[in-house]
């Protein structure tokens, strides 16, 4: 089994299809902080609450030039409906084969995604990592904003 990526490691790069009819590459987002939000599923109670809370405070992330990216294993069509329903101002990416989930070590029992958040600095180094054991709660906006601010 490979070593889990942790704070201080260079984030695994990826390109995934997402909302808005385009693909998103982590390499293209270099130059500013990135908040990667791995969530278990579209239109589930906790995921909806989590992503809506991040969307409601999107100006705090934007004020720090940080890009929020949601990633789950549903297909783009599911993401498009979910994003439209809630008016998300950030992209949702589709990792159907869970390859990016594996690269970030966010799969739990029975290969199910764990609610996890990573903050990357402008050069792609992981500066904050949280992998939930039980995904019934999520990291608050203030904690993520503080993590971005601490990058300096």
Quick synopsis:
This protein has 152 residues and is α/β, with parallel strands linked by helices. It has five helices and seven strands. It starts with 14 loop residues before the first strand and ends with a helix.
Describe this structure in words.
Strand 6 (116-120) and strand 7 (126-131) form a beta hairpin. The chain has one domain: Glutaredoxin (3-Layer(aba) Sandwich). A 5-stranded mixed sheet has the order 5-4-3-6-7. Strands 1-2 form a two-stranded antiparallel ribbon. It is built from 5 helices and 7 strands. The radius of gyration is 14 Å and the shape is globular. With 152 residues, it is of the alpha/beta class.
Notable characteristics:
152 residues, alpha/beta, Glutaredoxin, two-stranded antiparallel sheet, 30% helix
